[in-house]
Design goal:
single chain, 416 residues, alpha+beta, 6-stranded antiparallel sheet, 18 strands, 22% strand
């Protein structure tokens, strides 16, 4: 069997969109070939062509698996890359957590590679351990630009890029997708890749996934809430500065993360120096606090009775604390129940920007929908229903009952 002038030696892997094989070039070099299987689907062909074009912009010197050749056969288009026998980062992680020095080295290399992509206004959108290969000399290289795209339309290199993703479409890999990517993959930027890099570094350091659960929907919920253990819980010997860098990279809010991979690379490169500066600042602060503490002790030992003004301030503070106590939950008010056809289900994730709620749920076989406050990412309510949707025009929340046989709409104002 052959693909163009290349003799196929064996299959490496296969997915829904394409197949990757090991092959021999006319010159005798062993290469890897990725061929599109869905050649009759225009959007699949457009995405494959976009991958080829982006690969041509990013080479091995940039930290990416380079493009060697490309062509078209009656079975579909293909791209040719070097065959790298050192395996993937995923394969290394199957053996457990990596040494700290290796985590830092890999993190710096991947961050520098993605920094070069971000400089070219390219966002990867599918960074994960499976998409990191090691060169013969041990360098980590980014691969699989099947979901990559230009994120700035005014970039001259983006003129040939075709917008393939739909508004609100979920594109990426669960556990490495940033919260904003779950809602709208079409309009994401560099912070989305920073989140994925942080998730990978967490896994490299601890041997555990940052966001892990029994189902994909539960993982999505944890990502939306930012629920993850501190890396130091799994790796007490890890430098504090490295854990801080990782925690910031996987922050829920975009503005709380590093703005791009270049900033992440700088944090990883200067981490130890920054940690030393931070320790000096902390020590100075302790000296100041100690001095203040002496003054407070002297003042409190004078035997003076609390003044009326101080008593009033304490009473006011206690009243404020009382008001901060959460109110008892309000039962959601059902507006209507609508029977569903057997083949119908509601979308998995929707955001109501007016009400300010995020709803995450599953299909009819799942038993819960989680509702979050979009501003704080805090869990608002857990409902015993499956998949969900929000209607921003009527401020209604829609869900599917546990049996999956009817849609239920709630007054969104009562979901608090």
């Amino acid at each position: 069997m052959a693909i163009g002038p290349y003799e196929v030696l064996g299959e490496i892997g296969r997915g829904g969109m394409g197949v990757v094989v090991r092959a021999r070039s006319p010159g005798g070099t062993v290469v890897a070939i990725k061929q599109l299987l869905q050649a009759r689907k225009p959007d699949a062909v457009a995405r494959f062509e976009r991958e080829r074009r982006l690969l041509s912009e990013l080479g091995e010197k940039d930290g990416f698996v380079p493009l060697l050749d490309a062509g078209v056969t009656p079975h579909g288009p293909y791209i040719v890359m070097p065959f790298l026998s050192k395996g993937t980062l995923r394969a290394r992680l199957k053996r457990g957590a990596l040494p700290v020095d290796e985590v830092i080295s890999i993190g710096r290399a991947l961050a520098r590679a993605m920094a070069r992509a971000h400089e070219r206004k390219i966002v990867h959108r599918d960074l994960k351990p499976d998409n990191v290969l090691f060169s013969d000399d041990g360098r980590p290289l980014v691969t699989d630009l099947g979901l990559a795209k230009h994120f700035a339309r005014d970039n001259p290199d983006a003129r040939g890029s075709v917008s393939i993703s739909l508004d609100g479409e979920i594109v990426g890999s669960v556990g490495y997708m940033a919260p904003e990517q779950m809602n709208d993959a079409k309009h994401v930027g560099p912070p989305t890749d920073v989140f994925a890099l942080g998730s990978m570094l967490y896994e490299c350091l601890t041997g555990e996934k940052a966001f892990d659960a029994d189902s994909a929907h539960a993982v999505l919920a944890k990502v939306a809430l930012g629920e993850h253990d501190s890396p130091r819980k799994h790796r007490p010997d890890a430098p504090r500065w490295l854990c801080d860098v990782i925690d910031r990279a996987i922050a829920v809010k975009v503005e709380d993360r590093y703005p791009d991979a270049s900033a992440l690379a700088a944090a990883l490169a200067g981490g130890e120096r920054a940690s030393t500066r931070g320790a000096l600042v902390a020590a100075s602060a302790l000296v100041v606090l100690a001095a203040l503490g002496i003054g407070i002790v002297l003042a409190s030992s004078s035997g003076e009775e609390p003044s009326p003004a101080r008593n009033a301030a304490n009473a006011s503070r206690n009243a404020i604390d009382e008001r901060k106590k959460p109110e008892p939950p309000v039962e959601p008010r059902v507006v209507a129940r609508i029977p569903l056809p057997e083949d119908m289900y509601w979308p998995v994730i929707r955001v109501d920007s007016e009400v300010g709620r995020i709803a995450i749920g599953g299909h009819s076989e799942h038993t819960q929908t989680l509702v979050f406050d979009a501003a704080t990412n805090l869990l608002v309510q857990t409902l015993g229903i499956g998949a969900c949707s929000l209607d921003p025009t009527r401020h209604l929340f829609f869900g599917v009952t546990c049996s999956g046989r009817e849609a239920v709409s709630f007054d969104a104002a009562t979901l608090a």
